[in-house]
Amino acid sequence: MTSSAPAPGLFIAFEGGDGAGKSTQAGLLSQALSDAGRTVVRTREPGGTPVGEKLRSLVLEHGQGEIDAKTEALIFAAARAAHASQVIAPALLRGDIVISDRYADSSIAYQGTGRGLGTDAVASLNDWATSSLWPDLTVLLDVAPAEGRLRRTAGAAQEDRMESEPDDFHAAIRGAFLELAAAAPQRYLVLPAGDDVPGLARAIAQRVQELLQHHAAMGAA
Q1: Candidates 2.115.10.20, 3.40.50.300, 3.30.750.24, 3.40.50.80; correct CATH number of 10-220?
Q2: Is the predicted pLDDT of residue 169 greater than 50, yes or no?
Q3: In terms of Cα–Cα distance, which of 211, 220, 219 is closest to 10?
Q4: Radius of gyration over alpha carbons of the chain, in Å?
Q5: pLDDT tens digits, residue range 42-82?
Q6: N or C end of the chain: which has fewer CB within 10 A?
């Protein structure tokens, strides 16, 4: 899928396995852009809207009963449909920068590959759900399953329903993300999640600055 974010805004998604540090880097980028005078909308998936947050609890919290693979994919797509139409698209039309912790690539990886529903089927579902709204840039923080588990269980942290899946599930997810990035390198920035936090933040900020300059040049053309 290609980016279709409407001008003049910019849409950036952070992806990667559980425990990769997406929220940390999304927060650092958001702060840096805000400090530079940019209007930033920081959001997350599933969630971002009232209905999305309710669906988030259904699909991530333990104790919600059995959720089969197709139902899971549809719950994520429903939350994403609301998120895209109610939050992301309006912000982009205003000229804001949207930074989302996860987006449709997560469904392609987790449900398409991890749950065995097929990446093409899940990509098509999400393309329809979002009216073909895809990020201008996807930052993929690559983490090995064992390292991700160590990170997310540090201290008293408890794993959610998806995080608690076995390492072979998370290994399949990792491979799916890397395949997505390899198929569309112009839309991805792939970085090792184990690199130091400030170094990662600098690399991400540099790529985003280049994208903003390109975006501005295209708008002025």
Answers
A1: 3.40.50.300
A2: yes
A3: 211
A4: 17
A5: 999 999 999 998 898 888 777 777 889 999 999 999 999 99
A6: C
